[in-house]
Amino acid sequence: MEKWRALAVEAALSRAHSWILFAAVLLIASSALSIQFRRLDSSRWSIQRLEEDFVAGLSNDSISGFLLELTREPHVAGTPQNFHTARFVYESFQAAGIQTHYADFEVLLSYPLQRSLSLLLPNGSTLSLGLKEEAVEGDPSTSNPDVIPTFFPYVPSGTVCGEAVYANYGRAQDFETLRQRGVDVRGAVVLARIGKIFRGDIVANAAAAGAAAALVFSDPFDYAKNGTEGFYPSSQWLPPSGVQRGSVLLTSGDILTPGWPSTPNAERVDLSETKLPKILALPISAQDALPILAALGGEVAPADWQGGLRLPEYRLGRGPAKLNFSYEGNLTVTAIRNVIGMIKGSEEPDRYLLVGNHRDAWTFGGADPSSGTACLLEIARGFGKFLKQGWQPKRTLVFCSWDAEEYGLIGSTEWVEQNLDMLTARAIAYINVDRSVGGPNFDGCGTPQLDNLLMQVTKKVKDPNSVFKSVYDSWCALNRNATPIGRLGGSRSDFSSFLHRAGIPSYDLRYQTSFPVYHSLYDDYNWMKGFGDPLFQRHVAMSAIWGLLSIHFINDDIIPFDYSSYASVLEADVRTLKGLLPEDIDVTPLLRAISELQSAARQINAEASSSLKRRSLNDRLMLAERSFLDPMGLAQDPSSKHLIYGQTTSDLYGSQSFPGISLALANALAKMDKSTSSVLQHEIWKVARAITNAARVLSDNFH
Ligand SMILES: *[C@@H]1O[C@H](CO)[C@@H](O)[C@H](O)[C@H]1NC(C)=O
Ligand SMILES: *[C@@H]1O[C@H](CO)[C@@H](O)[C@H](O)[C@H]1NC(C)=O
Ligand SMILES: *[C@@H]1O[C@H](CO)[C@@H](O)[C@H](O)[C@H]1NC(C)=O
Ligand SMILES: *[C@@H]1O[C@H](CO)[C@@H](O)[C@H](O)[C@H]1NC(C)=O
Ligand SMILES: *[C@@H]1O[C@H](CO)[C@@H](O)[C@H](O)[C@H]1NC(C)=O
């Protein structure tokens, strides 16, 4: 085009004068036109227009329609009903114009075959406990015969008969209290309530204390906080027969293929080499826990062990009542199905933003996880509308619908293992939304270089609960601390393999406060419509936040990471850590490394405003988080490789900073001698080196 114009000018010059004028007018007109077009074009797809159009296009009716379709049947991993939801997600992605495929694996799942529990009273009579969640009036889903019975997957089969002991929340300190009070837990059937730690840790603590079996119940104190009258369907609380199913595995991913993908012909380890739960265990309802607690003797339990059941008091036992408990389940290698959709980037197709949510549910998934799946489908529909108008993102956007999350983050873990090298080299960030709405309040967690973006975006989205406020305003008002953003050390959802294994910056977002019907029969569309989100406006807000965050990652010239905020967060964490450490332990290496990170972050933030070498600058931003990985993994769990954020040793869901240092510190405090304190100092050096490496990646310097 340019060449043709030049030739045209030359030719015109050699002709008559009037021709020169004519050619000049033509040239000016044509270049003005092309500038005009370009300007129109760029404003049509400017970030601001994209954001406005995306949010304006979201519809609560559409989201509610998706949720209704997804929650028609219970859809546990490995069942035909969950293959049906895979088909629905596949077709919805395709309808949006998104290139879609299935990513299948074959993994070890577990289903209940037989359960019985009876209470043997000292006077010789036997009470058989129902173990059944009762249907409620006005909600036909709750009488669906295909709902999976209440159980904990992967626990051993067998029969146990033993005296009952009450163990409060089943934490290590609760078993310690029992020991101090002389209550012998060995051979007993432990009854503990859920609510403070991951249920798998309760079962493991009971096993470690020598119990023969563990029963885990939902106390009304935690799950029906409205007396004995107010519960679903008259309020949001868990009915007395409600039970919280769920995984009790302390590992994530398929247990037969630890560290590699579970493709059909993959190597599989022997079951005997795996870390399955050691004792029989079952989740039970408040209604079934009541007669057990009523039949316990022994000391009155401490004040903070008392709960919400109608009893004069909770006692510790042991016995005199006994429990006769038998369980039979199967372990079976079963096909699961992730659905992956992709919108290719125009400028950097080999840079990925991933957005994901799991699809399998313990029952109907009204909130967990189908409220998230409904939002995933809504944002896919939103980007689909842009695609149809000729838009393409600069970078590739990948939609992920995971299977078998409920069994231990299996679908996402296997996929990350299968694609690890590509993800490590090319993934920018992962945005997880599990259950998007379980209650009224926004709750956002993420790695700290993503803090600023989350704050900016939540300021732009209207709070669905209030006319005048943004999501950000209400979120901050509820959390009086400086930053309301939580961290992602715990392994509570599918971000775990992305962050803890691949070092990919991640978010985990939800609306929630307490979500009492979690993993029960009552987590269905009708509950959501009645109590979780009656007008589906919280779903709209979540879709807006999820979509706007995505737009920035796939469209901003410079990836919106701020390592300066990472350095500040680390510095605050080190200050806290210092207060816990013995005096002879030196945190200077950490502080030095953090100040290197801080100056590298300032430098790259300054470069970002001027640099033309965007690709290399973006690569430095993208790769810095990878420096926080230790290829050897943490001492407590080698498959978890992140040195900054990891789960606490007492609770799989608990998040802590510097998990390696924390473990060494706990060991040092338990057995203070020279060798443990040198291990502790070594862990501090290790984290300091990782932070220095991140600073180097950011500042682009070989040393
Ligand atoms: C045994 O005790 C229970 C609970 O106190 C009572 O309901 C039941 O009737 C008693 N059975 C006999 C045979 O006394
Ligand atoms: C408590 O229960 C009553 C009666 O069912 C209901 O009207 C009220 O909304 C409930 N309150 C809460 C906080 O759940
Ligand atoms: C315990 O329950 C099993 C299965 O229901 C039954 O066969 C067994 O006789 C019971 N044992 C006792 C001691 O009641
Ligand atoms: C395991 O149990 C489930 C549910 O009853 C059943 O559908 C499946 O066929 C069983 N698998 C094996 C291998 O027994
Ligand atoms: C969507 O929002 C509008 C306006 O608030 C409301 O009238 C409508 O009932 C909502 N739709 C659903 C499915 O809740």
UniProtKB/TrEMBL annotation:
Belongs to the peptidase M28 family. M28B subfamily. InterPro entries: PA_dom_sf (IPR046450), PA_domain (IPR003137), Peptidase_M28 (IPR007484), Peptidase_M28B (IPR039373), TFR-like_dimer_dom (IPR007365), TFR-like_dimer_dom_sf (IPR036757). GO terms for biological process: proteolysis. Keywords: Carboxypeptidase, Glycoprotein, Hydrolase, Membrane, Metal-binding, Metalloprotease, Protease, Signal-anchor, Transmembrane, Transmembrane helix, Zinc. Residues 585-698 form the Transferrin receptor-like dimerisation domain. The keyword Transmembrane applies. Residues 161-247 form the PA domain. The keyword Protease applies. It is a single-pass type II membrane protein. CDD domains: M28_PSMA_like, PA_GCPII_like. GO terms for molecular function: carboxypeptidase activity; metal ion binding; metallopeptidase activity. One of its GO terms (cellular component) is membrane. Pfam families: PA, Peptidase_M28, TFR_dimer. SUPFAM superfamilies: PA domain, Transferrin receptor-like dimerisation domain, Zn-dependent exopeptidases. PANTHER family: N-ACETYLATED-ALPHA-LINKED ACIDIC DIPEPTIDASE, VACUOLAR PROTEIN SORTING-ASSOCIATED PROTEIN 70. This is Uncharacterized protein AMP1B-2. Its main location: membrane. It is found in: Membrane. Its cofactor is Zn(2+). Residues 338-526 form the Peptidase M28 domain.
